Amino acid sequence: MLNHDDLVRIAKARYKKAWEFASEWREEAKKCQDFRAGTQWSDAEKIALKAVSKAPIVMNRIKPRVAAVVGMEIANRQELRYQPRETTDGGVVSLLNDASEWTRDQSMAEDHESDAFADCVTTGMGWTETLMDYEENLDGLAATRRRDPIAFCWDPNSSEPNVSDRKYHFFTQEMDKVDAEAMFPDFTGEWSGTALGVSDVDSIQPHDADNAKFYPNQVPADETKDTDKCRIVKYEYVVLEPAWRVVKPSNGELALVTPDEADKLKDDMKAKGHQIEFKKIKSGEAVRSQIVVNGVLQIPYVEQTQRRFYRAYFTGDTVIEHDTSPFPFGFTDNCVTWERDARKGTWFGMVRGLLDPQELINKFMSQAIYIYTVNPKGGAMAEKTAFENPTEAEEKWPRPDSIIWVKSGALQQGQIQARKPGQYPPDLDKLIAYMIEGIPALDGLNPEALGMAGRDQPGILESMRKQASMNILGPLFDSKRRYHKAQGKVLMYYISKYFTDSQLQRIVGERFKPELVQLLRQQDVRGYDVIMDDAPNSPNKREYIMYVLSEINRQVPMIAPATALLMIRNLPLPPEEVAEVEQRLQQQLNPMNAPQVQKMMQEAKQQMAKLQQTKGSAQHRAL
Q1: Which pTM does this prediction carry?
Q2: Summary mean pLDDT of the chain
Q3: How crowded is the C-beta side of 569, counted as CA atoms within 13 Å?
Q4: Which end of the chain has the least Cβ crowding within 10 Å, N or C?
Q5: DSSP state of 422
């Protein structure tokens, strides 16, 4: 861990570099958030339009398209599951899966992740923080919280999806000093309104008009000069530290320990009456097992390096807190990204490509309405002495039901002549239609994906066209899967280290075993694989199961009794009603025909596999 002076010096240099690197991206991201929320005219543009009597028309074509992609994510939510690398860890993995499902449900993690996913679609980056929350649950809850992407800046040298290869990142937020004091009760210094030499407060204010009220930690720019507020910067970074690969003498397991931990292990063994020493294996030397020399157990080790993660908090240039990260094997803040700008090194979402068409649609519509409003009135060319009251004539001229008094003989002498209205540009409608119709070609979302096809077509064809849009969004959902794998590691560590035994017992219930909890405490989270799968309760999963079972019943009617239970379990009904229907159906089935039912179930499985192959071939031909 860095000392105080090195920490401040390195953090200030990195923060300045990262903040300036992301400055252009922040401006673009704020514009994308504004356009999604419907704020698509700047104040200067509104003043200019008002000066020429034009209306700042907004036809928001962006929000429904972003909502469609976010809706796909919600309808295809995936559940996080852990899988052991050894079959003997099945009980521990079952405990992890139950605890993970419980804590994600209690903390509404899916909702926060959907908010972060919407940020990613809009700006190209979506961020969440995984933390232990002791306010909502006194025993602790591993909560996932969405964070404003505008408030982040990251390692400019990172280039992998989800910036997973970054060495550091910063999160800046504004908060009341009262809240800061409650968050850091041991801090006795002065709270500052600056952050490591950067005072651009306006860049971290929220710009999502729909969701800003749900995130109270960021404040508008006009409130940042409030003396009751301060700025807090969270700094997470990784350091390569030396480590020894050894075999523990207590249990014979292979472990990675730091030199300090090796010294502590030597002292512990000495206290038990055993003498040990560590012997480094040189390059090219054969690895040998532990041996005893003159009563001293020699433990061979290989010198390696390991990644160690740390976290610090700053207000101004002052360190509030600095310690090992709650998750020492990774970042507690995780990101999901979409497309990377290879020249700039930043990320962008779907909205970036829709900004220009949306601006042109608004401008063309404003111009068209202005022409429609002004042209029918026409105008007039008149001599100054033609009207009894010229001011009154100007006011009444556009009104067809008014009487305009003119001087005697003015009309006969031709002192007033009507001016023909201007012609409406015939190509303006074509330009507006071209912009509107061209938007699907920019983001790849067809009308079926938006639920706006507006034509009769077979259901299978519509489903295939929806799937085609999903394929275009493949990189985005792949990044989200990658995000879940990283965030799942954090969640796994929190469960194994911070959840109490009584809490785990309440979660698991009758299946709780103390020995499994003991094994869970001893396990290394890096020894498990995190896999993502379709959630069994997601709407698309249920719909697909019902479709397959219906096709089986249609083609093989004789096995309908065997598939009835499966169909009932996937009905969109409350769980208690599904259980009641399932129980009644089981009572009606004849127990004497169990072998026949088993045979029908086997035939159903074979038919399901055949249908899946047929569907896959049909989709391939359609695409």
Answers
A1: 0.75
A2: 80
A3: 11
A4: C
A5: P
